From TrEMBL:
One GO BP: microtubule cytoskeleton organization
Protein name listed in UniProt: CDK5 regulatory subunit associated protein 2
Biased amino acid composition, Basic and acidic residues: 36-55, 187-197
Polar residues composition-biased segments: 199-242, 290-302
Entry superkingdom: Eukaryota
Organism: Homo sapiens (Human)
Record region (Disordered): 1-22, 36-57, 182-242, 290-310
Protein backbone atom coordinates (compact mmCIF):
# COMPACT_ATOMS: atom_id res chain seq x y z
CA UNK A 1 0.00 0.00 0.00
CA UNK A 2 2.78 2.32 0.82
CA UNK A 3 4.52 1.47 -2.42
CA UNK A 4 1.31 2.05 -4.37
CA UNK A 5 0.72 5.31 -2.54
CA UNK A 6 4.27 6.42 -3.24
CA UNK A 7 3.85 5.59 -6.92
CA UNK A 8 0.67 7.64 -7.05
CA UNK A 9 2.46 10.51 -5.39
CA UNK A 10 5.33 10.11 -7.83
CA UNK A 11 2.94 10.23 -10.80
CA UNK A 12 1.21 13.25 -9.34
CA UNK A 13 4.54 14.94 -8.79
CA UNK A 14 5.53 14.22 -12.38
CA UNK A 15 2.28 15.73 -13.61
CA UNK A 16 2.86 18.77 -11.43
CA UNK A 17 6.42 19.10 -12.70
CA UNK A 18 5.22 18.81 -16.26
CA UNK A 19 2.49 21.40 -15.62
CA UNK A 20 5.02 23.63 -13.91
CA UNK A 21 7.38 23.36 -16.83
CA UNK A 22 4.58 24.23 -19.23
CA UNK A 23 3.62 27.20 -17.05
CA UNK A 24 7.24 28.29 -16.95
CA UNK A 25 7.54 28.09 -20.73
CA UNK A 26 4.26 30.03 -21.08
CA UNK A 27 5.48 32.62 -18.59
CA UNK A 28 8.74 33.05 -20.47
CA UNK A 29 6.79 33.42 -23.72
CA UNK A 30 4.53 36.00 -22.11
CA UNK A 31 7.54 37.87 -20.79
CA UNK A 32 9.12 37.92 -24.23
CA UNK A 33 5.81 39.06 -25.74
CA UNK A 34 5.48 41.73 -23.07
CA UNK A 35 8.96 42.98 -23.86
CA UNK A 36 8.19 43.10 -27.59
CA UNK A 37 4.90 44.87 -26.92
CA UNK A 38 6.68 47.32 -24.66
CA UNK A 39 9.27 48.01 -27.34
CA UNK A 40 6.50 48.44 -29.92
CA UNK A 41 4.70 50.80 -27.58
CA UNK A 42 7.84 52.87 -27.08
CA UNK A 43 8.46 52.93 -30.81
CA UNK A 44 4.86 54.01 -31.45
CA UNK A 45 5.16 56.73 -28.80
CA UNK A 46 8.31 58.01 -30.48
CA UNK A 47 6.58 57.94 -33.84
CA UNK A 48 3.59 59.73 -32.29
CA UNK A 49 5.83 62.48 -30.90
CA UNK A 50 7.56 62.78 -34.27
CA UNK A 51 4.19 62.94 -36.01
CA UNK A 52 3.10 65.58 -33.50
CA UNK A 53 6.15 67.67 -34.26
CA UNK A 54 5.57 67.18 -37.96
CA UNK A 55 1.95 68.14 -37.45
CA UNK A 56 2.96 71.36 -35.67
CA UNK A 57 5.37 72.08 -38.49
CA UNK A 58 2.61 71.54 -41.05
CA UNK A 59 0.29 73.83 -39.10
CA UNK A 60 3.00 76.50 -39.13
CA UNK A 61 3.44 75.99 -42.87
CA UNK A 62 -0.32 76.33 -43.33
CA UNK A 63 -0.25 79.63 -41.46
CA UNK A 64 2.68 80.84 -43.53
CA UNK A 65 0.87 79.76 -46.69
CA UNK A 66 -2.22 81.67 -45.56
CA UNK A 67 -0.14 84.80 -44.97
CA UNK A 68 1.56 84.35 -48.33
CA UNK A 69 -1.83 83.88 -49.96
CA UNK A 70 -3.15 87.10 -48.43
CA UNK A 71 -0.02 88.91 -49.58
CA UNK A 72 -0.42 87.56 -53.10
CA UNK A 73 -4.06 88.68 -53.06
CA UNK A 74 -2.92 92.18 -52.12
CA UNK A 75 -0.42 92.07 -54.95
CA UNK A 76 -3.16 91.00 -57.34
CA UNK A 77 -5.31 93.92 -56.20
CA UNK A 78 -2.44 96.32 -56.79
CA UNK A 79 -1.83 94.79 -60.21
CA UNK A 80 -5.49 95.18 -61.07
CA UNK A 81 -5.39 98.85 -60.06
CA UNK A 82 -2.31 99.38 -62.18
CA UNK A 83 -3.94 97.55 -65.08
CA UNK A 84 -7.05 99.75 -64.81
CA UNK A 85 -4.85 102.85 -64.86
CA UNK A 86 -3.05 101.59 -67.94
CA UNK A 87 -6.40 100.83 -69.56
CA UNK A 88 -7.51 104.41 -68.93
CA UNK A 89 -4.25 105.68 -70.37
CA UNK A 90 -4.64 103.44 -73.40
CA UNK A 91 -8.20 104.68 -73.93
CA UNK A 92 -6.99 108.29 -73.75
CA UNK A 93 -4.28 107.61 -76.31
CA UNK A 94 -6.83 105.97 -78.58
CA UNK A 95 -8.96 109.10 -78.34
CA UNK A 96 -5.89 111.19 -79.18
CA UNK A 97 -5.16 108.95 -82.15
CA UNK A 98 -8.71 109.37 -83.43
CA UNK A 99 -8.37 113.13 -83.04
CA UNK A 100 -5.17 113.09 -85.09
CA UNK A 101 -6.81 110.99 -87.77
CA UNK A 102 -9.70 113.44 -87.90
CA UNK A 103 -7.28 116.38 -88.17
CA UNK A 104 -5.39 114.62 -90.94
CA UNK A 105 -8.62 113.91 -92.78
CA UNK A 106 -9.71 117.54 -92.42
CA UNK A 107 -6.35 118.76 -93.67
CA UNK A 108 -6.51 116.45 -96.68
CA UNK A 109 -10.07 117.52 -97.44
CA UNK A 110 -9.15 121.20 -97.26
CA UNK A 111 -6.16 120.71 -99.55
CA UNK A 112 -8.33 118.87 -102.03
CA UNK A 113 -11.05 121.53 -101.82
CA UNK A 114 -8.81 124.54 -102.38
CA UNK A 115 -5.32 124.80 -103.81
CA UNK A 116 -4.37 127.62 -101.47
CA UNK A 117 -3.35 125.16 -98.79
CA UNK A 118 -3.29 126.49 -95.27
CA UNK A 119 -3.84 130.17 -95.99
CA UNK A 120 -6.83 131.59 -94.14
CA UNK A 121 -7.58 128.37 -92.24
CA UNK A 122 -5.74 126.22 -89.74
CA UNK A 123 -6.72 122.54 -89.68
CA UNK A 124 -4.35 121.89 -86.77
CA UNK A 125 -6.16 124.03 -84.24
CA UNK A 126 -5.39 121.80 -81.28
CA UNK A 127 -1.72 121.35 -82.19
CA UNK A 128 -0.16 122.88 -79.10
CA UNK A 129 -2.71 121.49 -76.66
CA UNK A 130 -2.40 117.96 -78.07
CA UNK A 131 1.38 118.20 -77.86
CA UNK A 132 1.20 119.18 -74.17
CA UNK A 133 -1.27 116.35 -73.46
CA UNK A 134 0.91 113.80 -75.27
CA UNK A 135 3.91 114.88 -73.22
CA UNK A 136 1.86 114.48 -70.04
CA UNK A 137 0.65 111.05 -71.19
CA UNK A 138 4.19 109.98 -71.99
CA UNK A 139 5.34 111.06 -68.53
CA UNK A 140 2.47 109.15 -66.96
CA UNK A 141 3.30 106.07 -69.05
CA UNK A 142 6.94 106.17 -67.93
CA UNK A 143 5.83 106.43 -64.31
CA UNK A 144 3.49 103.50 -64.82
CA UNK A 145 6.30 101.40 -66.33
CA UNK A 146 8.61 102.27 -63.44
CA UNK A 147 5.88 101.38 -60.96
CA UNK A 148 5.28 98.04 -62.68
CA UNK A 149 8.98 97.18 -62.63
CA UNK A 150 9.18 98.17 -58.96
CA UNK A 151 6.23 95.96 -58.14
CA UNK A 152 7.73 93.01 -60.02
CA UNK A 153 11.06 93.32 -58.22
CA UNK A 154 9.33 93.65 -54.87
CA UNK A 155 7.19 90.61 -55.60
CA UNK A 156 10.24 88.50 -56.45
CA UNK A 157 12.04 89.61 -53.29
CA UNK A 158 9.01 88.84 -51.14
CA UNK A 159 8.58 85.41 -52.68
CA UNK A 160 12.27 84.70 -52.02
CA UNK A 161 12.41 85.95 -48.44
CA UNK A 162 8.86 85.56 -47.17
CA UNK A 163 9.55 87.88 -44.22
CA UNK A 164 6.51 89.65 -42.86
CA UNK A 165 8.26 92.96 -42.19
CA UNK A 166 9.63 93.10 -45.72
CA UNK A 167 6.18 92.28 -47.07
CA UNK A 168 4.58 95.21 -45.23
CA UNK A 169 7.29 97.61 -46.39
CA UNK A 170 6.95 96.46 -50.01
CA UNK A 171 3.18 96.79 -49.93
CA UNK A 172 3.50 100.34 -48.53
CA UNK A 173 5.97 101.23 -51.27
CA UNK A 174 3.71 99.69 -53.91
CA UNK A 175 0.70 101.69 -52.68
CA UNK A 176 2.72 104.90 -52.74
CA UNK A 177 3.98 104.16 -56.24
CA UNK A 178 0.56 103.24 -57.65
CA UNK A 179 -1.14 106.42 -56.44
CA UNK A 180 -0.16 108.49 -59.49
CA UNK A 181 -2.49 111.40 -60.19
CA UNK A 182 -4.14 110.97 -63.53
CA UNK A 183 -3.94 113.76 -66.06
CA UNK A 184 -7.46 114.65 -67.17
CA UNK A 185 -7.93 114.82 -70.89
CA UNK A 186 -9.84 117.99 -71.65
CA UNK A 187 -8.93 119.12 -75.11
CA UNK A 188 -11.65 121.79 -75.18
CA UNK A 189 -10.65 123.49 -71.94
CA UNK A 190 -7.58 125.74 -71.92
CA UNK A 191 -6.75 128.21 -69.20
CA UNK A 192 -3.97 130.71 -68.86
CA UNK A 193 -1.63 128.33 -67.07
CA UNK A 194 -1.87 125.69 -69.80
CA UNK A 195 0.07 127.89 -72.23
CA UNK A 196 2.80 129.76 -70.37
CA UNK A 197 4.67 130.60 -73.57
CA UNK A 198 1.74 132.34 -75.17
CA UNK A 199 0.52 134.09 -72.04
CA UNK A 200 3.84 135.92 -71.67
CA UNK A 201 3.28 137.77 -74.90
CA UNK A 202 0.21 139.62 -73.55
CA UNK A 203 -1.44 140.05 -76.90
CA UNK A 204 -3.21 143.40 -76.58
CA UNK A 205 -5.91 143.47 -79.21
CA UNK A 206 -7.63 146.52 -80.60
CA UNK A 207 -5.30 149.11 -79.12
CA UNK A 208 -6.90 151.66 -81.35
CA UNK A 209 -10.42 150.73 -80.29
CA UNK A 210 -10.40 153.34 -77.51
CA UNK A 211 -10.32 156.08 -80.08
CA UNK A 212 -13.37 154.62 -81.78
CA UNK A 213 -15.47 154.21 -78.63
CA UNK A 214 -17.74 157.15 -77.77
CA UNK A 215 -17.23 159.46 -74.83
CA UNK A 216 -19.97 157.75 -72.85
CA UNK A 217 -17.70 154.76 -72.40
CA UNK A 218 -14.85 156.77 -70.94
CA UNK A 219 -15.63 155.47 -67.46
CA UNK A 220 -14.91 151.90 -68.55
CA UNK A 221 -11.28 150.84 -67.76
CA UNK A 222 -9.07 150.42 -70.83
CA UNK A 223 -7.79 147.12 -72.10
CA UNK A 224 -4.79 145.67 -70.27
CA UNK A 225 -2.53 142.69 -70.76
CA UNK A 226 -4.30 140.72 -68.05
CA UNK A 227 -7.65 141.29 -69.73
CA UNK A 228 -6.44 140.04 -73.07
CA UNK A 229 -4.54 136.99 -71.80
CA UNK A 230 -6.00 133.51 -71.81
CA UNK A 231 -7.93 133.97 -75.06
CA UNK A 232 -9.97 136.98 -73.85
CA UNK A 233 -12.61 135.53 -71.52
CA UNK A 234 -15.83 137.25 -70.66
CA UNK A 235 -15.54 140.03 -68.08
CA UNK A 236 -18.02 138.35 -65.73
CA UNK A 237 -20.31 141.38 -65.50
CA UNK A 238 -22.57 140.31 -68.34
CA UNK A 239 -26.23 139.56 -67.81
CA UNK A 240 -25.86 135.81 -68.14
CA UNK A 241 -22.91 135.62 -65.67
CA UNK A 242 -21.30 132.80 -67.61
CA UNK A 243 -17.94 131.41 -66.41
CA UNK A 244 -14.79 132.93 -67.83
CA UNK A 245 -13.87 130.49 -70.58
CA UNK A 246 -12.29 130.89 -73.96
CA UNK A 247 -14.72 131.21 -76.84
CA UNK A 248 -12.14 130.86 -79.59
CA UNK A 249 -10.66 127.71 -81.00
CA UNK A 250 -7.32 127.13 -79.31
CA UNK A 251 -5.42 126.58 -82.53
CA UNK A 252 -5.92 130.23 -83.56
CA UNK A 253 -4.04 131.31 -80.44
CA UNK A 254 -0.85 130.56 -82.40
CA UNK A 255 -1.77 133.38 -84.80
CA UNK A 256 -2.39 136.05 -82.15
CA UNK A 257 -0.24 139.14 -82.55
CA UNK A 258 -0.64 142.66 -81.21
CA UNK A 259 0.77 143.98 -84.50
CA UNK A 260 -1.54 141.88 -86.66
CA UNK A 261 -3.61 143.49 -89.39
CA UNK A 262 -6.51 141.06 -89.25
CA UNK A 263 -9.31 140.39 -86.77
CA UNK A 264 -10.28 136.92 -85.61
CA UNK A 265 -13.46 136.03 -83.74
CA UNK A 266 -16.58 133.95 -83.71
CA UNK A 267 -19.47 134.85 -85.98
CA UNK A 268 -21.80 134.86 -82.97
CA UNK A 269 -19.70 137.55 -81.26
CA UNK A 270 -19.59 139.57 -84.46
CA UNK A 271 -23.37 139.37 -84.92
CA UNK A 272 -23.93 140.30 -81.27
CA UNK A 273 -21.60 143.29 -81.71
CA UNK A 274 -23.52 144.40 -84.80
CA UNK A 275 -26.77 144.05 -82.84
CA UNK A 276 -25.45 146.20 -79.99
CA UNK A 277 -24.24 148.83 -82.46
CA UNK A 278 -27.64 148.91 -84.20
CA UNK A 279 -29.39 149.25 -80.84
CA UNK A 280 -27.07 152.12 -79.92
CA UNK A 281 -27.75 153.83 -83.24
CA UNK A 282 -31.49 153.45 -82.70
CA UNK A 283 -31.24 154.90 -79.19
CA UNK A 284 -29.16 157.82 -80.48
CA UNK A 285 -31.77 158.50 -83.15
CA UNK A 286 -34.52 158.47 -80.52
CA UNK A 287 -32.50 160.80 -78.31
CA UNK A 288 -31.98 163.14 -81.28
CA UNK A 289 -35.73 163.18 -81.89
CA UNK A 290 -36.34 163.90 -78.20
CA UNK A 291 -33.91 166.80 -78.23
CA UNK A 292 -35.54 168.23 -81.37
CA UNK A 293 -39.02 167.90 -79.87
CA UNK A 294 -37.98 169.50 -76.60
CA UNK A 295 -39.49 172.97 -76.02
CA UNK A 296 -37.31 175.96 -76.78
CA UNK A 297 -36.08 178.37 -74.17
CA UNK A 298 -38.68 180.98 -75.10
CA UNK A 299 -41.51 178.48 -74.80
CA UNK A 300 -40.13 177.43 -71.41
CA UNK A 301 -40.24 181.09 -70.27
CA UNK A 302 -43.75 181.66 -71.61
CA UNK A 303 -45.01 178.21 -70.67
CA UNK A 304 -46.70 177.22 -67.55
CA UNK A 305 -44.92 175.69 -64.63
CA UNK A 306 -41.35 174.77 -65.43
CA UNK A 307 -39.85 171.90 -67.48
CA UNK A 308 -41.64 168.84 -68.63
CA UNK A 309 -40.73 165.96 -66.26
CA UNK A 310 -41.90 163.08 -68.48
CA UNK A 311 -39.66 163.77 -71.55
CA UNK A 312 -36.71 164.49 -69.26
CA UNK A 313 -37.03 161.16 -67.41
CA UNK A 314 -37.42 159.36 -70.72
CA UNK A 315 -34.26 161.07 -72.01
CA UNK A 316 -32.32 160.08 -68.88
CA UNK A 317 -33.45 156.46 -69.21
CA UNK A 318 -32.42 156.51 -72.88
CA UNK A 319 -28.98 157.80 -71.89
CA UNK A 320 -28.53 155.03 -69.29
CA UNK A 321 -29.72 152.41 -71.79
CA UNK A 322 -27.29 153.74 -74.39
CA UNK A 323 -24.48 153.57 -71.84
CA UNK A 324 -25.28 149.92 -71.04
CA UNK A 325 -25.48 149.13 -74.74
CA UNK A 326 -22.07 150.69 -75.37
CA UNK A 327 -20.55 148.81 -72.44
CA UNK A 328 -21.95 145.54 -73.76
CA UNK A 329 -20.59 146.37 -77.22
CA UNK A 330 -17.21 147.08 -75.63
CA UNK A 331 -17.25 143.67 -73.95
CA UNK A 332 -18.17 142.04 -77.24
CA UNK A 333 -15.33 143.92 -78.87
CA UNK A 334 -12.86 142.40 -76.39
CA UNK A 335 -13.79 138.95 -77.69
CA UNK A 336 -12.19 139.73 -81.05
CA UNK A 337 -8.46 139.27 -81.55
CA UNK A 338 -5.80 140.90 -83.64
CA UNK A 339 -4.00 138.15 -85.51
CA UNK A 340 -1.40 137.63 -88.20
CA UNK A 341 -2.29 134.97 -90.74
CA UNK A 342 0.31 132.20 -91.25
CA UNK A 343 2.56 132.37 -94.24
CA UNK A 344 2.98 129.64 -96.82
CA UNK A 345 6.39 128.71 -95.39
CA UNK A 346 4.81 127.47 -92.17
CA UNK A 347 3.08 124.53 -93.84
CA UNK A 348 6.11 122.20 -93.92
CA UNK A 349 6.80 123.03 -90.28
CA UNK A 350 3.27 122.04 -89.29
CA UNK A 351 3.45 118.90 -91.41
CA UNK A 352 6.75 117.96 -89.77
CA UNK A 353 5.28 118.54 -86.30
CA UNK A 354 2.25 116.43 -87.13
CA UNK A 355 4.47 113.62 -88.43
CA UNK A 356 6.60 113.70 -85.29
CA UNK A 357 3.52 113.64 -83.09
CA UNK A 358 2.04 110.74 -85.04
CA UNK A 359 5.29 108.83 -84.61
CA UNK A 360 5.22 109.67 -80.90
CA UNK A 361 1.63 108.43 -80.61
CA UNK A 362 2.55 105.20 -82.40
CA UNK A 363 5.54 104.71 -80.10
CA UNK A 364 3.41 105.30 -77.02
CA UNK A 365 0.79 102.92 -78.37
CA UNK A 366 3.43 100.20 -78.79
CA UNK A 367 4.75 100.82 -75.28
CA UNK A 368 1.25 100.56 -73.88
CA UNK A 369 0.65 97.33 -75.77
CA UNK A 370 3.88 95.84 -74.41
CA UNK A 371 3.03 97.01 -70.90
CA UNK A 372 -0.42 95.48 -71.20
CA UNK A 373 1.09 92.16 -72.31
CA UNK A 374 3.51 92.21 -69.38
CA UNK A 375 0.68 92.91 -66.97
CA UNK A 376 -1.41 90.10 -68.44
CA UNK A 377 1.52 87.67 -68.10
CA UNK A 378 2.03 88.79 -64.51
CA UNK A 379 -1.65 88.29 -63.79
CA UNK A 380 -1.48 84.78 -65.26
CA UNK A 381 1.56 83.96 -63.12
CA UNK A 382 -0.16 85.29 -60.02
CA UNK A 383 -3.30 83.29 -60.75
CA UNK A 384 -1.20 80.16 -61.33
CA UNK A 385 0.68 80.65 -58.06
CA UNK A 386 -2.62 81.26 -56.31
CA UNK A 387 -4.02 77.98 -57.65
CA UNK A 388 -0.85 76.13 -56.63
CA UNK A 389 -1.03 77.58 -53.15
CA UNK A 390 -4.66 76.56 -52.92
CA UNK A 391 -3.77 72.98 -53.91
CA UNK A 392 -0.95 72.94 -51.34
CA UNK A 393 -3.28 74.31 -48.70
CA UNK A 394 -5.91 71.63 -49.46
CA UNK A 395 -3.22 68.93 -49.33
CA UNK A 396 -2.00 70.26 -45.99
CA UNK A 397 -5.54 70.21 -44.62
CA UNK A 398 -5.98 66.58 -45.70
CA UNK A 399 -2.60 65.67 -44.17
CA UNK A 400 -3.58 67.43 -40.96
CA UNK A 401 -6.80 65.41 -40.76
CA UNK A 402 -4.93 62.13 -41.35
CA UNK A 403 -2.39 63.00 -38.66
CA UNK A 404 -5.12 63.84 -36.19
CA UNK A 405 -6.77 60.48 -36.86
CA UNK A 406 -3.43 58.68 -36.43
CA UNK A 407 -2.82 60.52 -33.20
CA UNK A 408 -6.21 59.43 -31.88
CA UNK A 409 -5.45 55.82 -32.76
CA UNK A 410 -2.08 56.03 -31.01
CA UNK A 411 -3.65 57.49 -27.89
CA UNK A 412 -6.21 54.64 -27.71
CA UNK A 413 -3.75 51.82 -28.47
CA UNK A 414 -1.44 51.69 -25.36
CA UNK A 415 -4.33 51.47 -22.82
CA UNK A 416 -6.09 48.42 -24.33
CA UNK A 417 -5.07 44.76 -24.43
CA UNK A 418 -3.74 43.05 -27.51
CA UNK A 419 -5.65 39.80 -27.73
CA UNK A 420 -4.70 39.23 -31.32
CA UNK A 421 -1.01 38.95 -30.45
CA UNK A 422 -1.29 37.04 -27.16
CA UNK A 423 -3.87 34.32 -27.87
CA UNK A 424 -2.11 32.51 -30.75
CA UNK A 425 1.15 32.12 -28.84
CA UNK A 426 -0.41 31.08 -25.54
CA UNK A 427 -0.38 27.24 -25.27
CA UNK A 428 -3.40 25.37 -24.01
CA UNK A 429 -3.18 23.98 -20.52
Amino acid sequence: MLIKGSRDKQKENDKLRESLSRKTVSLEHLQREYASVKEENERLQKEGSEKERHNQQLIQEVRCSGQELSRVQEEVKLRQQLLSQNDKLLQSLRVELKAYEKLDEEHRRLREASGEGWKGQDPFRDLHSLLMEIQALRLQLERSIETSSTLQSRLKEQLARGAEKAQEGALTLAVQAVSIPEVPLQPDKHDGDKYPMESDNSFDLFDSSQAVTPKSVSETPPLSGNDTDSLSCDSGSSATSTPCVSRLVTGHHLWASKNGRHVLGLIEDYEALLKQISQGQRLLAEMDIQTQEAPSSTSQELGTKGPHPAPLSKFVSSVSTAKLTLEEAYRRLKLLWRVSLPEDGQCPLHCEQIGEMKAEVTKLHKKLFEQEKKLQNTMKLLQLSKRQEKVIFDQLVVTHKILRKARGNLELRPGGAHPGTCSPSRPGS
